[in-house]
Amino acid sequence: MNILLPPTSAASAFAGKVDALLWTMTAVTGFVAVSIITLMVLFSVRYRRAATVDRRIGPATIGVGNHWLEITWICVPLAIFVAFYVWGARLYFDYENPPLAPLEIDIVAKQWMWKLEQPNGRREINELHVPRGRPVKLVLSSQDVIHSFYVPAFRVKRDVVPGRFAILWFTPTVTGRYHLFCAEYCGTNHSEMGGDIVVMEPQAYSRWLEHGAVQPTLAQRGAALYRQLGCSGCHTPGSAIHAPDLDNLYGRTVPLSNGSFVKVDEQYVRDSIVQPSRDVAAGYRDEMPSFAGRVSEEDLLELVAYIKSMAPAQAPEGAGSP
Questions:
Q1: Nearest-CA neighbor of 144 among 113, 169, 117?
Q2: Is 258 left (phi over 0), alpha (psi -120 to 50) or beta?
Q3: How many Å is the Cα radius of gyration of the chain?
Q4: How far, CA to CA in Å, does 109 sit from each of 129, 135, 209, 210, 286?
Q5: Where is 73: in which H helix or E strand?
Q6: Sign (positive/negative) of CA torsion 50, 51, 54, 56?
Q7: Confidence label for 202 from pLDDT (cuts 50, 70 and 90)
Q8: Cα–Cα–Cα angle for 212, 119, 97, nearest 5°?
Q9: CB under 8 Å, gap of 24 or more: what pairs does 242-246 form?
């Protein structure tokens, strides 16, 4: 399958919008290209050396021109380019604002596989089952090098960079099996780093989820790791060390010691664990040790999942500080 060209199937709610922009741009630019080539051929024939055409240039012809024609061929292409820019920008901003209450799935990329985990703890390798018609939010991280999560049928692709969380979402609309690729060269077996996304009817997905192996969820494993690392000794009310209380913290916008504000999302929680001195919450001292090198990417996903579970509902913007 040629992943450089858009596939014929469009299996997500976003795919049709991307295709509309793509084919409209293709049609307009194709029309312009054909028009220019046609005019070049016509002028080459009409004004060839052997043609009987008056090519004299004299005082009567100098300075003669059609200003409205010049204005038209400047303004019309500019308007078309601006229209495409606005159209693309609207799609971009729509995609960067995922819907509320999606099905959230955590993924770790590593040479050369995708390790995926469902909300109930069921794990998959290079295969992801999702229900049709429900928004799905993927929280991706890389254990080694840069990877890229690409599903052509959904028209979604996101680079996964070590040291950062990447967010990707889609709403599958058609049941079936769709190819998943790594679209960033990541080493010797890059071409083998693929998989499938299986879109199921909601009832079938629920049955599949229930019949999986019973395992602790990410949040449950994160809670155990939270205690094991000693986090509970500081981030609880009444502790000897003055540290932020993490209950109901996720999703809120909090002030920092430098006077700025930040939303407590996956990336902020991750940075606070491995780079605690980077964004210190207002009213607290820079005392937390860094856990960089002491926890893996999977450990970080577990800790983030546990902290997220401490805030049952996402707090609105500007809800307060820790």
A1: 113
A2: alpha
A3: 28
A4: 17, 21, 22, 25, 32
A5: helix 67-95
A6: negative
A7: very high
A8: 145
A9: 242/284, 242/285, 243/284, 243/287, 243/288, 244/281, 244/284, 244/322, 245/322, 246/307, 246/310, 246/322
Torsion of CA 309, 310, 312, 318, to 10 degrees: -120
- List the one residue out of 145, 322, 142 whose CA is nearest residue 245: 322
41-56, pLDDT tens digit by residue? 998 888 777 667 666 6
The mean predicted confidence, pLDDT, of the chain is 84
Is residue 218 pLDDT above 90, yes or no? Answer: no
Q: Which of 16, 1, 60 is nearest to 174 (CA)?
A: 16
Q: Token pair of 17, please? A: 């919008």
- The residues, ordered by sequence, that sit 6+ positions from 167 with a Cβ below 8 Å of its Cβ are 98, 137, 138, 139, 140, 158, 266
CA–CA separation, 88 vs 206, rounded Å?
A: 36
Q: With 60 as the cut, is the pLDDT of residue 208 above it?
A: yes
SS3 at position 30: helix
If one counts every other C-beta atom within 10 angstroms of the C-beta of residue 161, the result is: 17
Buried b / exposed e along 273-296 (16+ C-beta atoms within 10 A): beebeeebbeeeeeebeebeeebe
Q: Domains of the chain (ranges plus CATH)?
A: 103-210 (2.60.40.420), 218-309 (1.10.760.10)
**What pairing do the DSSP bridges indicate for beta strands 156-160 and 253-255?**
unpaired
pLDDT digits (tens, 9 = 90+) for 221-241: 888 888 888 888 888 777 777
**Vertex 34, ends 28 and 37: CA angle to 5°?**
140
| Torsion sign across C-alpha atoms 42, 44, 47, 52 | negative
Condensed to tens digits (0 to 9), the pLDDT of residues 135-191 reads 999 999 998 899 999 999 999 999 999 888 888 999 999 999 999 999 999 999 999
